[in-house]
Design a protein that fits this description.
mainly alpha, 9 helices
Length: 165
């Protein structure tokens, strides 16, 4: 029995001692604080700038025009499949110019009005070049149909909007 006491083993730690050691290691290793006042000020400024940018991106209204744009876009969406679509698209174009939203651009293509279709095709082409408009399968199908049409100007604009790929 005395062999157990003579081995030189250290005494066993209690669970509370183990937890305290873990907590001490976590607080010491996980915190990375800037060194010095200047570094802390730069860190605080960078954090504030990041949060402001994030807030602008998260809470920004898509598109342009604010409440008028929301109202006109809602009118275009409500007029889909009705004879009023032409008038709603004309009102949108007159007040805000061509839309940037692919769903609204698709609605413009559905009107059959040459001026509205050309405006939408140009907006799609510009949006694709700037990376702001991605073609859905439906929009791509509409563009292919227009590219095969008899109106040369519409066909060329549709091919340009389709672009490579």
């Amino acid at each position: 029995m005395s062999g157990d006491d003579d081995r030189g083993e250290r005494p066993r730690r209690s669970w509370s001692e183990i937890d305290k050691l873990r907590d001490k290691a976590r607080t010491r290793g996980d915190e990375r604080r800037p060194r010095g006042a200047a570094a802390e000020a730069r860190s605080r400024a960078a954090t504030q700038q990041y949060l402001e940018k994030l807030g602008r991106e998260l809470f920004a209204k898509p598109g342009k025009g604010g409440a008028a744009a929301d109202r006109l876009a809602g009118a275009v969406r409500a007029a889909l499949g009705t004879p009023e679509l032409h008038g709603a698209c004309r009102a949108y174009l007159a007040e805000l110019g061509p839309p940037a939203d692919p769903a609204l651009l698709s609605a413009f293509l559905d009107t059959g009005d040459r001026e509205l279709v050309l405006a939408a095709l140009r907006a799609i082409g510009e949006g694709r070049r700037s990376g702001g408009v991605a073609l859905s399968a439906g929009l791509r199908a509409q563009l292919r149909t227009l590219a095969e049409g008899l109106d040369d100007e519409l066909a060329e604009a549709a091919e340009a909007a389709l672009g490579p790929g």
